[in-house]
Amino acid sequence: MRNFVCLLVVGLVSCLAPAVAAGAERPDWAFPVTDKVLPPSKDDGKPKTAPGSTLALTRDQIDDLFNAPDWFPDMHPPMPTVVAHGNKEAAVRACGSCHLPTGTGHDESAYVAGLPVGYFVRQMADYKSGDRKGSGTMIAMAKVITDQEVRAAAEYFAGLKPRPWIRVVETDTVPKTFIGRGNKRLAHPDGGSEPLGNRIIEVPEDEDIVLNRDPRAGFVAYVPKGSIARGEALVATGAGRTPSQLYRTPALEHAERRARRRLGRADEGGGREAERRRHAGDRRLHGVADAVAGRRPQENAVDLLCAAPGKRDAAILPAAPYGYRDQP
Ligand code: HEC
User: Fold this and answer.
1) Which of 61, 203, 263, 306 is buried most, with the most CB atoms less than 10 Å from its CB?
2) Contact, 132 vs 123, CB < 8 A?
3) What is the pLDDT of residue 111?
4) How far is the CA of 153 from the centre of ligand 1 (A)?
5) Pairing relation of β-strands 166-171 and 219-224?
């Protein structure tokens, strides 16, 4: 299944390429924003529970971003403070609130379970420096979080086992949805369906579980019919283009040039040290490939769309060249 997700997103994004070139760089489906008018809340104000968990939490407790709800402590190792509670004084929110203690994340965050430590640390540095754009939340926190907190979070999430989190369904029609608080796409309470068109629409497998930030259930991704086969053909044959041509953007080239310059300096010693660094770089490439497989198609699509010039300088694609610098 993980491969499918990866293939799928490449296929879909390749169909989106002309639209991107034409200027439609931020399709609404990929960058959901909370609707101005929301349907009435279904919350009855009572504490929520989960079968097998000892917790009972109100909606406000669940959405307290300095206390990640830990419904099932057995599903993960003990969380470092920054993941469980953040750092309230510095306005660093609990990573586990949005990314969940299992790192599997929500549509308001990202799938971070199993990301290589170097990649994770690099993303935080890029949010801070402005090299990675897009997420106001992450950029603001990256500016104030300490290096030790980043390291603790990176090591925690890297140690988590990635697991299937998204079920991909090819279809023509999707349930009607709205974008709720926290940019969460939810089924519209009035029901109904609408054409999918050329979009990826992700909805919770179980809405209550997702709203409760309970890590037991993930998402369904509705995708256009034929996306998986198109993605497979593209990955297998390159559809007449080599992967490097497909992904070659000015941003990527810039990142590579910088990495080569650094590598050049690092290589001055030559010999064994240069060799060691090349091998370390190769290992990192594998780590980065793992990080793409199994992620939400929508999130991968955003990364690919944002790799367009001037959008995101350091998305997952250019992460590999950076790897050289991150080696100890
Ligand atoms: C309020 C929700 C929220 C909280 C809390 C949060 N994040 Fe995020 N995080 C996001 C969003 C949204 C993204 C995706 C942003 C993007 O596309 O650049 C993200 C992305 C990331 C990424 C990049 C993942 C990738 O695949 O490239 C890292 C690393 C990360 N967060 C680390 C952290 C750490 C460390 C903390 C805790 C200090 C944290 N986050 C807390 C919402 C959150």
Assistant:
1) 306
2) yes
3) 87
4) 11
5) parallel
